[in-house]
Design a protein that fits this description.
The complex is a heterotrimer of chains A (275), B (266) and C (383).
Chain A lengths: L2 H34 E2 L3 E2 L2 H8 L1 H33 L4 H9 L6 H12 L4 H9 L10 H26 L3 H8 L4 H12 L1 H15 L3 H6 L8 H11 L3 H33 L1
Antiparallel strand pairs in A: 1-2
Helix pairs in contact in A: 1-13, 3-7, 3-10, 7-10, 8-9, 12-13
Chain B lengths: L2 H25 L15 H8 L1 H34 L3 H16 L2 H14 L6 H26 L3 H8 L4 H12 L1 H17 L2 H6 L7 H11 L3 H39 L1
Helix pairs in contact in B: 1-12, 2-12, 3-6, 3-9, 4-6, 6-9, 7-8
Chain C lengths: L4 E12 L2 E12 L3 E5 L6 H9 L6 E6 L2 E2 L10 E4 L11 H11 L4 H14 L15 H13 L5 E5 L7 H18 L2 E6 L2 H7 L2 E6 L2 E6 L1 H6 L4 H6 L4 E9 L2 E4 L2 E4 L9 E7 L5 E3 L6 E10 L4 E7 L4 E6 L8 E5 L6 E4 L4 H11 L23
Parallel strand pairs in C: 3-8, 3-9, 6-7, 7-8
Antiparallel strand pairs in C: 1-2, 1-4, 4-5, 9-10, 11-12, 11-14, 12-13, 14-20, 15-19, 16-17, 16-19, 17-18
Helix pairs in contact in C: 2-3, 2-4, 3-4
The chains are: A mainly alpha (275), B mainly alpha (266), C alpha+beta (383).
Chain lengths: 275, 266, 383
């Protein structure tokens, strides 16, 4: 590399490094400091002690993870077969665009649609009445929250899986069939393992935002489902207890980092084992 | 195609579009609720047209998205170049990890962290703080779209350019940037999507004077249903649909050209 | 030909950390010649090219171009252009814009540029392809554009880094001839890198055979083929039968248990040497008439000849090229002429080799386009 090029590289690094420091490192560091800076007590671990000894908060943590998990499983169950069907279509690019299209409508508008659909006199309730079920409160339930969250996240699960499926050499499934595997065996033993990278990306892109869909909880779930996301929002914007809000934030970050590290390790071990 | 595949496709597309169509249908409702359809009318569109506050917010949202994506694309491309050119493995890996931090962080945390940062900087919450936050969460995605293009690029191209007498700036503007332009455009559009779709981060760092569509819909929805929102959704859906069709037609045409060329070479 | 020195390497070495890629290379190129750097991959031949083009800087020594040391001159300011192995055409430009890239950077007028592009495309037989996109071209056409693009910059020296290796056999042959024609027409110095000895022999005025970061031997194609300086060169260039022998006295060599007259001299009496016999110099005959008696082990048809593997009674394998097939398992005789025997001394440097040849061969020492007095001896290391 000659000198001018080196100088350019240094300039790029400078600009980008500065951005990383100011907008990635600084905010997260401030969040950490804020979580330790308890009003009236100075720096202490009091917030963390409170968090980990409080039943409601621990339950909320478990709840958040449980709901995020459910949302992820639901979207995966719908998205995987959908992606598989899409890859077999003639104008698959067009159909894929139709799957992506709803993501261009702001998620608040989509949530808003469900207020109408699920409302007491909403379409769904009346349809249920029509088949003979009694009218029931659908809005402001846990089920409603799960449904809307899964609906919003669905395209984000389809996309990476679809791409991973397209990346599979079409000769591989053909080879599997040639060697005597049935379509089901081919799917299980060839296509599914090969599409794992896409599934993994999909799971990550759905699981993480699912932890923080506080607006859906507020609009659809009522305040019955309190997730960590809702709690953070409440501490920051309602009760103005930034310190405790930051503590929950830090806990959330650490929990997430752990989950990701664990899933990554498992993947590596599996790969190593297969060799 | 098997029956079961057909069924699943229909079912999924019904799921995806039912809520949206529901919004569209009720935008033409003569009544004021999303419960009973009282007959066809344009009245909610007229209300929308008269609601200058909402139109202003739509305009704000679009402007914010364009501006933040533009800035994010510039910095993100520089970032991708920085990561790509860095030789030391450890530094490269740390840069990439830091880049991905915002990408994998939940929105609430980004929002909260930025609220603390902006307050610490003594900024008044408003357009500027929202813009900065949007730029910040868009940059990582731009980096991730541009970086693979740099890695795919035939590295000898830059060598060939300087071999032919191009100075480093000329290599960048005449060869490198044009070759990775598809990644840069993809990054820009992803940034645009992120910005338009964001609610949580904006909600944290916005102030009294500035609002985006998502924040506005949130506050209106908490007060109850207004079919004006349906009318707006319908218009936006229509616009998105037209864009998708245009994009599809364009990409098909391009693909057609390519396959024709391949046949010619054979 | 008035040979004017255009490029010189003085004790040029390059290492990356512990690995020595080039070990004190000395070479000198005259203008207007077609040079080839020939060697297996990893031998350092492409590294020399990168040092000339400016992609790499030497760790020590001097790269001298037109009398000036250019060690640190950036690539864009060298009057040298490269044709890359993978073509490296700019995919965002069409054929015309690719060829016009260099002239445009020089801020030539568009009329001059157009003339230049037309001329260059004519030279590589691609007239009329100006508006084609790069991905519309076949590999051979892309390589022609790459050549035109490099030549459009009026280089004094054109570097070609295995430019034909990705092409099929026939196309490679055609382009070999065309490149040679272009080089003769323009009178520019070409430095061609290849691992294909056939290609090197067919195209070059002068060949540098490289291995392990060292120039093993240099000379005209004929010299290198007929008088390989060591085992590596004999083995790498063409097919060879190499057996150990003893040089009993001048013009008398002993191998496979017999004495043979030959045409080499200048060794110590009874010096251990290696004996080279090319397969095409061996002829099959009856066992009685043969200088060696061998058993045919197997043979394969190669189109214009049969390649026969035979074994003598000492279990040495002999490769023979014959026009007629032989019978496997039969015993036959091998004959060859005294001048077909080539003797190689162990660890003889090219300098000593040349000196020895000159001492007993009063006639026709091959003419060397570079001044042979400039050559610095190189130490050979067979370990």
């Amino acid at each position: 590399m000659n000198k001018t090029k080196k100088r350019f590289t240094e300039a790029y690094l400078g600009i980008y490094g500065l951005w990383l420091l100011a907008f990635v490192v600084a905010p997260l560091l401030l969040l950490l400091i804020q979580s330790l800076n308890v009003p009236g007590q100075g720096f202490s671990l009091a917030n963390y002690r409170d968090f980990f000894t409080s039943g409601p908060y621990l339950a909320m943590t478990v709840n958040s993870i449980w709901y995020a998990f459910l949302i992820t499983v639901m979207t995966l169950a719908i998205a995987y077969p959908l992606a598989l069907c899409l890859t077999k279509l003639k104008h698959r690019q067009f159909w894929l665009l139709l799957v992506i299209l709803p993501t261009w409508i702001n998620l608040l508008l989509k949530t808003y649609a469900f207020i109408g659909l699920l409302g007491k006199d909403g379409l769904l309730n009346r349809a249920l009445e029509g088949i003979g079920f009694g009218s029931s409160q659908l809005l402001f339930t846990n089920g409603a929250f799960l449904l809307v969250a899964a609906y919003i996240e669905l395209p984000f699960m389809v996309l990476p899986i679809y791409n991973a499926l397209l990346d599979i050499d079409p000769l591989l499934p053909a080879a599997s069939r040639d060697l005597g595997a049935s379509s089901w065996e081919t799917l299980k033993k060839v296509i599914w393992p090969l599409s794992m990278p896409g599934v993994k990306t999909g799971v990550q892109t759905v699981f993480i935002p699912s932890l923080s869909l506080f607006m859906i909880t507020r609009l659809i779930g009522g305040n019955k489902v309190i997730t960590l996301g809702t709690a953070i929002e409440e501490h920051f914007l309602v009760t103005q207890n930034w310190s405790f809000g930051s503590t929950i934030g830090v806990v959330l970050i650490i929990a997430m980092a752990l989950t990701m590290a664990l899933t990554n390790d498992k993947q590596k071990k599996k790969r190593g084992g297969r060799k | 195609m098997k029956v079961i595949e057909r069924f699943w496709l229909s079912f999924c597309f019904f799921l995806l579009y039912a809520p949206i169509l529901f919004l569209v249908v009720y935008s033409f409702n003569q009544g004021e609720t999303m419960q009973t359809f009282d007959g066809f009318s344009w009245q909610h569109y007229q209300e929308l047209w008269a609601d200058t506050r909402l139109l202003q917010i739509v305009l704000n949202t679009i402007l914010l998205a364009l501006l933040s994506s533009l800035i994010a694309t510039v910095i993100g491309t520089i970032g991708a170049l920085a990561i790509f050119r860095t030789q030391r493995k450890l530094l490269k890996q740390s840069l990439l990890s830091l880049n991905n931090v915002l990408l994998v962080s939940p929105d609430v945390i980004i929002g909260a962290a930025f609220l603390i940062l902006m307050t610490a900087l003594g900024l008044k919450m408003g357009f500027l703080t929202v813009l900065m936050a949007h730029v910040a969460f868009s940059i990582p995605i731009v980096v991730l779209m541009v970086l693979p293009k740099l890695q795919e690029m035939n590295q000898d191209l830059a060598l060939a350019a300087s071999d032919l007498g191009a100075k480093p700036t000329e290599v960048l503007t005449k060869v490198t940037l044009p070759v990775i332009s598809s990644g840069i455009f993809a990054g820009f559009f992803m940034a645009l999507t992120y910005s338009l779709d964001d609610f949580a981060v904006t909600f944290f760092v916005t102030g009294n004077g500035f609002s985006t569509l998502a924040v506005e819909v949130y506050s209106r929805a908490r007060q109850g249903v207004s079919l004006e929102i349906n009318a707006l959704s319908t218009l936006m859906l229509f616009l998105a649909f037209v864009l998708v069709l245009a994009y599809y037609a364009y990409s098909q045409k391009k693909q057609g050209q390519k396959t024709k060329l391949k046949e010619k070479v054979k | 030909m008035a040979a004017e020195k255009i490029l010189e390497f003085k004790q040029v070495a390059l290492s990356f950390g512990e690995t020595e890629v080039l070990k004190n290379i000395d070479l000198s190129l005259d203008s207007g010649q077609f040079y080839t750097l020939l060697g297996p991959s990893g031998s350092g031949k492409s590294t020399i090219l990168k040092l000339i083009s400016g992609q790499l800087q030497p760790s020590s020594g001097q790269v001298i171009f037109d009398g000036q040391v250019i060690n640190d001159l950036p690539a864009e300011r060298r009057r040298v252009n490269t044709v890359f192995q993978n073509y490296s055409l700019f995919p965002n430009m069409n054929v015309y814009d690719n060829v016009a890239f260099g002239p445009r950077l020089k801020k030539m007028s568009e009329a001059t540029i157009e003339e230049k592009v037309k001329e260059m495309l004519g030279l590589v037989k691609l007239s009329g392809y100006e508006n084609r996109e790069i991905n519309e071209l076949s590999g051979g056409q892309q390589q022609r554009v790459a050549i035109a693009r490099a030549l459009a910059n009026d280089p004094e020296l054109l570097l070609l880094d295995e430019p034909l290796s990705a092409l099929d056999y026939k196309l490679r042959k055609v382009l070999q001839t065309e490149l040679r024609t272009i080089q003769r027409r323009l009178g520019i110095t070409f430095v061609f890198v290849t691992h294909d000895q056939e290609e090197a022999l067919a195209m070059s005025d002068w060949i540098f055979v490289m291995n392990d970061g060292v120039i093993q031997q240099q000379g005209s194609p004929e010299d290198i083929y007929d008088e390989p300086v060591n085992h590596f060169v004999a083995d790498f260039i063409g097919e060879s039968n190499i057996v150990p022998g003893i040089m009993k006295e001048d013009y008398l060599v002993h191998f496979v248990g017999k004495d043979f007259d030959n045409r080499d001299a200048g060794m110590r009496p009874n010096e251990a040497v290696e004996v080279v016999l090319r397969p095409e110099d061996l002829d099959l005959t009856t066992p009685e008439a043969g200088k060696l008696v061998v058993t045919i082990k197997n043979q394969s048809f190669r189109g214009d000849y049969y390649e026969i593997m035979a074994q003598d009674d000492d279990l040495n394998l002999w490769q023979v090229q014959a026009t007629n097939p032989a019978e496997i398992g039969s015993r036959v005789g091998l004959t060859f002429d005294p001048e077909d025997i080539h003797i190689m001394r162990y660890n003889e440097s090219e300098e000593d080799f040349d000196a020895r040849l000159e001492a007993y061969e009063d006639d026709e020492t091959p003419t060397d386009p570079s001044d042979s007095a400039d050559k610095v001896p190189e130490v050979f290391d067979h370990e």
